[in-house]
Amino acid sequence: MMPREDSKKKPRRSKDTDLIAVIKAGDTPSKSDRSDRSLSSPEYSINPEIEGIRLSIEAERAAELAEKEKEAENAANEILNLVAAAELDRPLAEIGYLFSHQKEAVKWLLAHRTGGIYRGGILADDMGLGKTLSALVAARAMAKIHGCPIFVICPASLKDNWLREAAKAGAAIEVFSWAKMPKALESQKYLVIAMKPTMHRMKRASELKN
């Protein structure tokens, strides 16, 4: 019985033989060739100008973010300093301590700022809840930190009342008739406490006059 041809064992080629054949044929580039080819490929090339612009933009964004964080930190510290200067837990002359809602009103007034400028706030509590005292305590803190005088705009009939309340709050205020306000008022830093109806009437009268 003759053996089948396909059952004959084919001679085995060693791995070294295959490797030599491939190298001779030049089919497999060396590692350095592959590296050079990938670096020179347009797909992987880096434009120095574009890369420089990207890094510059990232640096600007990081600087802007750091500046905003610093501004926020400074604003928070300023508010904390103002609240501390208000001494909300210190008893006031004749009346004792502020009520909790008055303390919250003072904190709100001191934190009411936009873009680093105090643009004022309106206390709209009901009559008899101590709006005058809350406003004066907040004003006293701002005057202490910023060194600005406090001016109160109110009807002439309420001047004495404001002076009494200011004495209780320990706030030094100056009371003037609107027509006799000092000329230097517009050119210096100051804090104004105004009753809205009175302020509105005076503003309207000034507009009509001009």
UniProtKB/TrEMBL annotation:
Residues 101-185 form the SNF2 N-terminal domain. One of its GO terms (molecular function) is ATP binding. The keyword Coiled coil applies. Residues 1-18 have a biased composition (Basic and acidic residues). The keyword Coiled coil applies. Keywords: Coiled coil. Residues 1-45 are annotated as: Disordered. Residues 55-89 form a coiled coil. It comes from the Bacteria. Transmembrane segments: none annotated. This is SNF2 N-terminal domain-containing protein. It comes from Microcystis aeruginosa EAWAG127a.
